[in-house]
């Protein structure tokens, strides 16, 4: 088989806080992302000390979406993964009534996508939430946020039930362990027990949203999303194998709860041995048990290694791991491991026996415009080609794969560092780290390459 299955969804993935800009337009409230002008690797600011950041304008997708969506259509996209900014719909998060201007904006987006025959794939919370909820409630530490999120989910399900049939709840939900302000609205100094308590509230909210979606839009599908940070044992020493098992369990825990509907035994043991007591309300576990997701989606950028020797660990980009001597690194130090995607796809499908969706994969690099006014990003073509070949291998292995949406099909503001110079796109945006640039769009070499991949349903990929 040289192609992907019939009906395979091809496209790209963006996030509201990294492309839209217009951070105070049409009644939008401040989000937690707005309080991180230098990215999630920097301390967050308060409302009073907030300074302007590059995300305030981002790439101005808010106003330029017709042009950008037309370019996506030109590439042949059948799917666009995007997110709704919660603070556009409920500016503070706890209002009784939604902001109509925010709802109307996403109506226009979905109508534009429909005009071009592109399926919208919508994330409810992609690394942002109304800052007011963090400021006045302490973020997801307060279980009242379950109700606020339920109201938000119900509102958008009701509004867009005829326009959106593919949904995700929380983006990379396991990242809360590494970036608590971004994930659950807690201070960076929050204890592990506080973070897991907030995560419990978020998992209950996830279950409520899944049940709502099933009830309100019966012909829709709703999934979860994991940061697919698979770890290999650094050696065949059984201690390293166990270390890898523990590292993988840290993120598989989120998939287990959202798919199997219960807290796994290995996590209960971890809580016992680390003095973590999760406060649960009556009905929490029943809600989780009743709300298995329809599919598993995940991001995949790099694999890692785990060792029982703590001296082996290296500080990475957000997630630490042991360096793998068999792999090359990107310009940002991320390990490049295409075969890891095949391994991860088989691993997740064997564990959950549910359809999978690769919703983020791509190469962040410094792209340069050459003397001919072109961008020859052969390195990006090679990266994506090799990963897609391995995804195709996983399909041959028997994995049920729904689609592939590359991360940042148009250049956007990096979430981790708030840089424009870390570019992922097939489409170049003339904007730079200092905020300069005219925001003009330009096709890179990879634009035509991805267009051909989609047109041939993967037959043009080259095994290397």
UniProtKB/TrEMBL annotation:
GO terms for biological process, alphabetical: carbohydrate catabolic process
Species per Swiss-Prot/TrEMBL record: Photobacterium aquae
Protein name from the UniProt record: 6-phospho-beta-glucosidase
Species lineage: Bacteria, Pseudomonadati, Pseudomonadota, Gammaproteobacteria, Vibrionales
One GO MF term attached to the UniProt entry: beta-glucosidase activity
Keywords: Glycosidase, Hydrolase
Superkingdom in the source lineage: Bacteria
Pfam family, one: Glyco_hydro_1
NCBIfam families: PRK09852.1 (NF007356)
Gene3D superfamilies given in the database record: Glycosidases (3.20.20.80)
Assigned protein family: Belongs to the glycosyl hydrolase 1 family.
InterPro entries documented for this protein: GH, GH_1_N_CS, Glyco_hydro_1, Glyco_hydro_1_AS
Active site (record annotation): 360
GO cellular component: cytosol
């Amino acid at each position: 088989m040289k192609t992907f299955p019939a009906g395979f969804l091809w496209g790209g993935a963006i996030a509201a806080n990294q492309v839209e800009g217009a951070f105070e337009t049409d009644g939008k409230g401040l989000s937690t992302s707005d309080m991180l002008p230098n990215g999630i690797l920097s301390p967050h600011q308060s409302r009073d000390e907030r300074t302007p950041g590059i995300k305030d304008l981002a790439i101005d997708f808010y106003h330029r979406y017709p042009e950008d969506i037309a370019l996506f259509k030109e590439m042949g996209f059948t799917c666009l993964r995007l997110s709704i900014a919660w603070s556009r719909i409920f500016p503070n998060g706890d209002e009784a009534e939604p902001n109509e201007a925010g709802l109307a904006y996403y109506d226009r987006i979905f109508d534009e996508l429909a005009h071009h025959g592109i399926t919208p794939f919508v994330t409810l919370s992609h690394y942002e939430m109304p800052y007011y909820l963090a400021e006045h409630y302490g973020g997801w530490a307060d279980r009242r946020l379950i109700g606020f999120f339920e109201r938000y989910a119900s509102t958008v399900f009701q509004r867009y039930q005829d326009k959106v049939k593919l949904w995700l709840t929380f983006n990379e939900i396991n990242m809360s362990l590494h970036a608590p302000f971004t994930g659950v609205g807690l201070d960076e100094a929050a204890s592990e027990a506080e973070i897991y308590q907030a995560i419990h509230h978020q998992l209950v909210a996830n279950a409520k949203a899944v049940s709502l979606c099933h009830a309100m839009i019966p012909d829709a599908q709703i999934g979860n999303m994991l940061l697919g940070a698979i770890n290999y044992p650094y050696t065949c020493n059984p201690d390293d194998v166990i270390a890898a098992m523990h590292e993988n369990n840290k993120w598989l825990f989120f998939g287990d709860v959202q798919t199997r509907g219960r807290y796994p035994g290995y996590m209960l043991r971890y809580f016992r041995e680390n003095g973590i007591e999760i406060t649960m309300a009556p009905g929490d576990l029943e809600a989780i048990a009743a709300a298995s997701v329809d599919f598993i989606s995940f991001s995949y950028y790099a694999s890692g290694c785990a060792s029982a020797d703590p001296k082996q660990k290296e500080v990475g980009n957000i997630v630490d791991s042991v360096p793998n001597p068999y792999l090359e690194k990107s310009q940002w130090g991320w390990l490049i491991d295409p075969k890891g995607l095949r391994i991860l796809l088989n691993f997740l499908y064997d564990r959950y026996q549910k359809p999978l969706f690769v919703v983020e994969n791509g190469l962040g690099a410094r792209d340069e415009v050459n003397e001919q006014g072109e961008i020859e990003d052969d390195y990006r073509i090679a990266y994506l080609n090799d990963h897609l070949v391995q995804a195709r291998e996983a399909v041959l292995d028997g994995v049920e794969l729904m689609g592939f949406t590359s991360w940042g099909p148009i250049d956007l503001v990096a979430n981790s560092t708030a840089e424009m110079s870390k570019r992922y796109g097939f489409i170049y945006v003339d904007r730079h780290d200092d905020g300069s640039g005219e925001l003009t769009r330009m096709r890179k070499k990879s634009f035509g390459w991805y267009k051909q991949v989609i047109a041939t349903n993967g037959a043009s990929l080259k095994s290397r």
